[in-house]
Design brief:
The protein is α+β, with helices and mostly antiparallel strands. The chain has eight helices and eight strands; from the N terminus they run αββαβααβββαβαβαα. This is Thioredoxin-related protein.
Length: 198
């Protein structure tokens, strides 16, 4: 019995250690970094084409130093294997610093910095995740072209369901995201994956 308990304890400690290693680290800019986030030249049209070439969709995440909600997203949502694996498989995610100075090229060709892009596009919350179409439209800004925007921090299922809704092109159908999300939650509850309070 003691050997069984010792093995169980060792396994739990190994899993906890592995999860710690997988956690996002802080970069020099103070943002949490996921090793699977894409590093690009931040030319939005090129990034959309690259994502499509990889069979994915482009998502931009705006974050900032000291953002407790960004920390929560990285430590409790993106660390969840179900969430992380789905996003990695279906999306190319590029991280932007809401107050950063890296150069960005908007879809309309205007050269910006990360911070002037955030202002131009009207993004004021962190994290904000912006979902782009499969093809880069000409003459539009990112804000005009976005098929969906998720401002602020949400729980696992709202977060994951938004990515699923975009991947399934829910924005082209009659079922609004809130209806889609409610339906998925009801299906998860019926399958015993959620309690009544979730």
């Amino acid at each position: 019995m003691h050997k069984l308990l010792a093995r169980a304890f060792t396994l739990l400690m190994a899993l906890a250690f592995a999860q710690t290693l997988a956690a996002a680290e802080l970069g020099e800019d103070g943002l949490h970094k996921e090793e699977w986030f894409a590093m690009t030249f931040r030319d939005i049209a090129e990034d959309i084409a690259q994502a499509k070439g990889e069979g994915k969709r482009l998502a931009i995440t705006f974050e900032q130093r000291g953002c407790i909600y960004c920390k929560e997203m990285h430590e409790n949502i993106l660390s969840d294997p179900e969430v992380r694996d789905y996003i990695r498989e279906n999306f190319m995610v590029v991280q932007y610093n809401m107050f950063g100075d890296e150069e960005v090229t908007d879809l309309d060709g205007e050269a910006l910095t990360e911070k002037t892009a955030a202002r131009k596009w009207g993004y004021v919350f962190t994290p904000t995740i912006v979902f782009l179409p499969e093809e880069a439209p000409e003459g539009k800004t990112v804000a005009e072209a976005a098929v969906a925007t998720m401002p602020g921090a949400f729980g696992k299922w709202t977060f994951l369901n938004m990515f699923r809704w975009v991947k399934e092109k829910g924005y082209e159908r009659e079922e609004h995201f809130q209806q889609y999300h409610a339906r998925i939650i009801n299906e998860l509850r019926a399958a015993g994956r959620l309690g009544d309070g979730e």
